[in-house]
Amino acid sequence: MPRFARLHEIQQLDPERDHVKIQHLSTGYEFPWDTVRALEIALYRTYCVPSISALLDRTGEFRHRTQQRYDDTSLIVAEMCKSGYESGRGREALERMNWIHGHFKIANEDYHYVLSTFIYEPIRWIDNFGWRKLCEQEKLAAYYFWREVGKRMGITNIPPTYEEFERYNRDYERDKFRYADSNQRVGSATRDLFASWFPRLFAPMVRHGIYATLDERMLAAFGFPRPFAFLPPLARFALKMRGKFVRLLPPRKQPNFFTDIPNRTYPKGYEIAELGPPRLLKAAATK
Question: How far from 75 is each of 70, 156, 162, 189, 193, CA to CA, in Å?
Fold first, then answer.
């Protein structure tokens, strides 16, 4: 298969009608690594909002089971990107997410913002660091995909166009990003989780590398120190060089969703019905 054959296939599809197929091809075949990294940044951005971080901090899950929360979230999102949201495992994952969220009181505007990060952070990341830029069909398909997921989550008044939702995303961040202790606790727990994936000797380097990928507003909202001046441009250079290298590789023959690789919480596999905070699972089992 030629390197750009899948791009040409995507460009022949209708982004509104075929958004499930486009999302599958783009996230699973074209940009699997970039999608996971971008969604990590997306989650980090949501922690900059005190109303969101306060809820996450109050549950204690991000302090005591950080790896499981990361894996559960990533698996649910990947199941939907892989299988869609209308049937099979994708629908089961969506229903599981709704079941978990149903135990908490979450403002509609916060739902709006979290949903928007799942659209625009991957787009921004891939356009900056991917082996190619996203085509218009991929960008619009991401909007239609997550808009339909949002509707099935019961989110109301989702902005009706790609451009309006992106404007909402930027305005919300301008108005809502500010420091809170809960931001710092949740952000630090996630930072330390990422650092734990490497030998302890490299932990300080990893932490500063994380700081280098966060913008000024995010650093301020977390109360994180500014990275060494040389690190942000170095990180951007390294990511761009990776993209150029990947461009030279042959196209992927098999998908590489987060669900397709072993994870730390469920090394022997998992059932979607088992995903979620243990206290909720225990409460459900006793009913």
Answer: 9, 25, 26, 19, 17
Residue type at 73? T
Scanning the structure block, which residue is given the tokens 């019961």? 154
| CA angle, 176 then 178 then 184, to 5° | 125
What number of other Cβ atoms are within 10 A of residue 171's Cβ?
Answer: 11
Domain boundaries, the chain: 9-193
Contacts of 194 (CB under 8 A, 6+ apart): 40, 206, 210
DSSP string for residues in 241-273:
HHHHHHHTSPPPSS---GGGS--SS-TT---GG
The dihedral of CA 71, 105, 192, 29: what is its sign?
positive
Instruction: Say if CB 158 and CB 166 are below 8 A apart.
Output: no
- pTM above threshold 0.70: yes
What would the two tokens of residue 214 be?
């966060």
Cα 49 to Cα 56: distance, rounded to the nearest angstrom: 11
CA distance 176 to 280: 30
pLDDT above 80 (res 200): yes
- d(CA 96, CA 153) in angstroms, rounded, equals 11
Q: How far is Cα 211 from Cα 224, in angstroms, rounded to an integer?
A: 7
List the one residue out of 83, 77, 76 whose CA is nearest residue 38: 77
Diameter of the chain measured on Cα atoms: 56
- CA-to-CA separations, 174 to 98, 113, 211, in angstroms, rounded: 28, 12, 20
Per-residue pLDDT reduced to its tens digit, 219-259: 999 999 999 999 999 999 999 999 999 999 999 999 999 99
* CA pair distance 49, 226, nearest whole angstrom: 19
Q: How confident is the model at residue 285 (pLDDT cuts 50, 70, 90)?
A: confident
The residue whose two tokens read 């625009």 is 120
Q: Using alpha carbons only, how large is the chain's radius of gyration in Å?
A: 19
